[in-house]
What we know:
Elements: H1 8-26, H2 71-90, H3 101-109, H4 119-138, H5 144-162, H6 169-195, H7 202-212, H8 214-222, E1 238-253, E2 263-273, E3 290-297, E4 301-318, E5 322-335, E6 340-356, E7 361-378, E8 388-403, E9 407-418, E10 429-444, E11 447-461, E12 468-482
Antiparallel strand pairs: 1-2, 1-12, 2-3, 3-4, 4-5, 5-6, 6-7, 7-8, 8-9, 9-10, 10-11, 11-12
Helix pairs in contact: 1-7, 2-4, 2-5, 4-5, 4-6, 4-8, 5-6, 6-7, 7-8
Amino acid sequence: MTTSPFSTDRLIRHGSAALTLTLASLSGANAQFIDRPSGQGAMGRSDVPRSELPDLGGPVVATAPSKDYVLPALEIIGFDIILNRLNHTFDKSTTDYNVTVPTIKRNIRSSWVIDNDPYNTNQILHPYQGAMYHGFARSTGMNYWESLGYTFAGSAFWEIFGEATRPSRNDQIASGIAGSFLGESLFRLSSLVLENGSGLPSNLREVAAAAISPPTGFNRLAFGNRFDAIFASNNPAYYGRLQVGASNATQAVLGPSVQDKRTEVVANFAIDYGLPGKNGYRYDRPFDYFNLEATASSGSGVESIHNRGLLIGQKVELGKDYRGIWGLYGSYDYIAPQLFRVSSTALSLGSTGQWWLSNMVALQGTATAGIGYAAAGSVRTAGERDYNYGVAPQALVSLRLILADAAAVSFNAREYFVSNVAAASRGGHENIIRADASVIWRVHQQHAVALKYLWSHRDAAFPGLSNQTQSRATVGLYYTLLAKDGFGTVDWR
């Protein structure tokens, strides 16, 4: 994909509204789900249409979804055709969407390449496009692995039939794999809103769910009772928050970049879904645990997206005070702190858990290490290549110390080594580190304030260029709205 009328700015506006509705629907009284026989609806059977259900404004009991193998394939093909026609109509700067029989025949026979499309097109719009493929499959009854197959096939269909350019393997990874990771998180979050409305009217829950996962909303609206069944979340423990505030740069080593904006308005949304330790909760399905975080700023637009989920794993218990999970995680990351940017699709081994340090203090955390395929480079530069691809070893440490649900201290650190293995450009490498530390004080119920320090650093070495160093640090103050009256502690004692 080259350019698109669906810009990242529009995606930010759409995402901001969706995430605000999400937190509103997850806030309020902590809902308790009523146990009913598996596969039955809110009236004791699985075929009750929405129009016959009372609008109680509370939690809805999940039901077993219908399954249709043909419909999602047709929807994905239709989506790609519409997207191609829209791009062809509105983007007059390129002929990339002038698809003909000769271009299709050539693409079928062609070897796959690394393309030169704009960074945000490849690293934001492509994963979101893949998330749409995944949502079409998930909302028509497919499980995660089946939906991954539809997503991967949908991406390949676009590369061959949706564009006149040669198919690119970097797009296939971003849409077909990262898109599946992102799509599953959005589908789960959308379903959680439908399942646990916490006082919102059913119509508003439907709007919020559709804003988060448009394919889910489309199939629920277009096919009536056929896909009304809500995915069973099994009532996960979760922690969510929305932060809005301002930050100011305390350090800026520009390197090859020519400018930065020192003061920014920032909005951040984060959710941890399926936190370990809850009695009876199991991790039998991919993304029964996931973390999703997105940040938008006036300086960068989309500043960061972090999405990781447990694909295959199992529980861990160490004594009476520690419970966790370990296994294989899939992740999609996008980081752009004004001076440089990195995006990675990865598989990692790791663990997530909670340790009760005392009766009132708990430590939650995740540690992972793995291999990804990443794109990185400087921005706002004079003469330097935009970005480079390469295989990227990477690691993550994320910790949250919770003090009696009155305050929380968080620390997160990520590192990416973007090598010259499987790169399309000249040799070289980049090492990128991003770390933050924050303190959140709960003022009243779900309202809190936060102070956050954020540091981003890049070292790069390429033949023919001097070694480059870029670094940026900010301090920000934020109003914080919590999804619940606390910071997500899970008490199994």
